[in-house]
Amino acid sequence: TGLSEAIAATWPFAEVQTCVVHLIRASMRFVSYSDRKNVAKALKPIYTAANAEAARAALEAFAESPLGAKYPTAVRSWEAAWERFIPFLAFGPATRKLIYTTNSIESLNYQLRKITKNRGHFPSDAAAIKLLWLAIRNIEDRRDRERAKDAQRRADGHAGPRKSIPRLVEGATIHGWRAALAELALAYPERFDPH
Fold it and tell me: Which of 84, 61, 75 shows the shortest CA–CA distance to 31?
């Protein structure tokens, strides 16, 4: 699509990582409904492998399996995206969890697109930036209100314990954030501010 080339041209030291969830969806595109659970189970060793070599071995094992023979398009989708998939395998579990999917980013982008969609143009770049900043603040305020409402319901005894960890746009409450940040700082020391 040219996205990788555009990123490389703008940020020459960037590593382009494909979304693993989208890769799984792409490989399931031509899989019959009755085989989806089995194919998903057979693909899991690929993206949970400890390193690129183990992932390659898992992909080859899947390709040689009856399911891989039945659905060669699933194998081809992984092979076609392999170079954009393997950067993911260089990281540990905490960092992988952060970069496993782009859903939170896509959710934020969707909300920002919704706000800018009906505006024909902006008088200046500063006006567009201000609108986006205000939109992010509104998104955060809405999430804060929802969390406060949940806390009040729990305090009143009308709701059970929280089943998931709340997430902010900034990622402040993502489980394992500090471990992932430490791993990224080791992997990319020149990109982190020394202070």
Answer: 75
Query: Residues 5-54: pLDDT tens digits?
Result: 888 889 888 888 888 888 999 999 999 999 999 999 999 999 999 999 99
CA distance 125 to 123: 7
Q: Which of 126, 121, 108 is nearest to 171 (CA)?
A: 108
Cα dihedral 31, 36, 42, 48, rounded to 10, equals 110
The answer to whether 48 and 1 are in contact (CB under 8 A) is no
Helix (H) or strand (E) holding 136, with range, is helix 125-155
Of the candidates 58, 130, 50, 56, the residue with the CA atom closest to the CA atom of residue 90:
50
Cβ-based neighbours of 100, under 8 Å, separated by 6 or more:
20, 21, 88
Contact 102, 62 (CB under 8 A): no
**CA 108, CA 164: separation in Å to the nearest integer?**
19
Q: Which residues contact 66 (CB under 8 A, 6 or more apart)?
A: none
Helix axes 103-117, 125-155, angle to 10 degrees: 120
This prediction's pTM: 0.64
Q: How many residues comprise the chain?
A: 195
The DSSP output letter for 118 is: T
Q: Are the C-beta atoms of residues 47 and 81 closer than 8 Å to each other?
A: no
